[in-house]
Design goal:
This protein has 21 helices and three strands. The protein is mainly α and about 450 residues long. It has two domains: about 350 residues, no CATH class; about 45 residues, no CATH class.
């Protein structure tokens, strides 16, 4: 009897999700230890580490990360109390990713029930290369994802008359807008879903006043930032082919990993048993959430179209990281049509455990693939920055700014000057980059 009680408790989806998140955190922390710092992470650290607010203010106006200052302001205040580093900023990114995953799970559980929420959350979290990569970075995109999940969760409270809801709504949308410029697009699409689903008759009453006020404040702040900032890091070319668009969705979740477990559940189910039903008190909030999620998932496609019909190309996958939360919602919505017909008792045992094992395997496969790319034998960042092998290589190197294939070679016509006395290396470096200038002799 004791064993049965123990197995039921252990196999509850919330406990399995907690176990998965622990494995997820352990994998990310291990990967973080293999990564050498790169230029954008150094810029994040530069934007955070100042002794006085005036220094922080000046650095933000330089457009060093060309984004609103919430992430940097948050960490600037934090480092005044606790000394920070790039490694600690990476740990913070992991924390924000986990917070966003948990908020997505809580939201889907409110609408679809625990089992469906667990199914969708764990499959997307285990396969999203975007979440896994940004959990390792000392950058602001993990906070962007957490704020997106927060905005979706707040929207589910719209009809529940929660105390302080208006302030929570304003704060959530404001944070989303102040982490990244694309945040206002996600906020606007959320407002559009409010407009389409609101029961109010007045045109201006359909969108909550707190959201409208957030837009006004954010647009005014954007105009101020953009007149002061100079985009130093945003001038690099961005691939926007059809394959890039497809991969932006395909890298979030493989639909085969949804279909196979569902077919297994259908085959093993017994239709005579009781079925799991959706929480009746929460179904009223599902329609605006579904519309918001659908609109959010279209954002990469929208910017892909813009990149082809205008000179403006902002098609960068990490700019759209809030869409990962909407993918969790939509996977839950699609899965609900199958899971509602399956027996509740069976879902508590073998199938749920099987999903957990599958998710962990997918996560470990992604981690192993990442480890290969971070291996010091294949990663020049590792050899140059961590191992500092260039100092003991016997080949004098003179660097002036950045050559083409090194980080931050975004503006200017500067060259990297190398003193190379080996003929084979001369040819190799010539093929490596047209911006590398070979110095055959130096006047002492």
């Amino acid at each position: 009897m004791t064993g049965n009680i123990f197995s039921i408790k252990v196999l509850k989806p919330k406990y399995l999700l907690a176990l998965f998140l622990l494995i997820y955190a352990a994998s990310v922390i291990y990967l973080q230890g293999l990564k050498a710092p790169w230029v954008d992470e150094c810029y994040s650290y530069y934007g955070v580490w100042h002794d006085r607010f005036s220094e922080f203010y000046n650095s933000m106006l330089t457009g060093i990360n060309f984004s609103p200052p919430l992430y940097f302001l948050f960490n600037f205040c934090l480092q005044l109390i606790f000394q920070t580093s790039i490694e600690q900023l990476r740990i913070q990114s992991l924390a924000f990713i986990i917070i966003g995953i948990i908020l997505s799970f809580l939201l889907t559980r409110k609408i679809f029930g625990t089992t469906i929420a667990f199914f969708s959350t764990i499959l997307v979290a285990s396969q999203s290369s975007l979440l896994l990569s940004q959990a390792q970075e000392a950058r602001h995109y993990a906070m962007f994802f957490a704020c997106g999940a927060w905005v979706l969760y707040i929207q589910s409270l719209n009809d529940l008359k929660v105390k302080g809801y208006k302030w929570f709504t304003f704060l959530g949308h404001f944070c989303l807008c102040q982490v990244h410029y694309i945040g206002i697009i996600f906020s606007f699409l959320t407002g559009l879903s409010y407009f389409l689903t609101s029961k109010n008759t007045g045109f201006w009453k359909k969108v909550p006043i707190s959201v409208t006020m957030c837009w006004l404040v954010s647009i005014a702040s954007y105009l101020f930032y953009l007149t002061k900032q100079k985009s130093v890091l945003n001038t690099w070319s961005k691939p926007n082919g059809l394959s890039n668009l497809i991969s932006s969705y395909n890298d979030s979740i493989l639909f085969l990993t949804i279909i196979i477990p569902c077919l297994a559940f259908i085959i093993s189910s017994n239709s005579k048993r009781d079925t799991e039903t959706l929480p009746k008190e929460e179904t009223s909030c599902s329609r605006p959430i579904m519309i918001t999620s659908f609109l959010w998932i279209l954002v990469p496609f929208l910017f892909w179209i813009i990149s082809h019909i205008t000179p403006l190309n902002l098609f960068v996958e990490r700019y759209f990281i809030p869409k990962e939360a909407s993918i969790i919602i939509l996977v839950a919505y699609g899965s609900s049509f199958i899971f509602q017909k399956l027996p509740q008792q069976r879902l508590k045992f073998i199938p749920v455990l099987g999903i957990s094992v599958l998710a962990v395997m997918l996560l470990l496969i992604s981690s192993k693939r990442t480890i290969f790319g971070l291996n010091k034998d294949t990663n020049y960042h590792h050899s140059l920055i961590i191992e500092e092998s260039y100092q003991i290589s016997g080949q004098p190197i003179i660097l002036r700014d950045d050559p083409k294939y090194f980080p931050n070679a975004y503006i200017g016509d500067y060259q990297c000057e190398l003193l190379v006395n080996d003929k084979k290396l001369n040819n190799l470096y010539k093929d490596f980059s047209a911006k590398i200038k070979l110095v055959k002799n130096i006047n002492k």
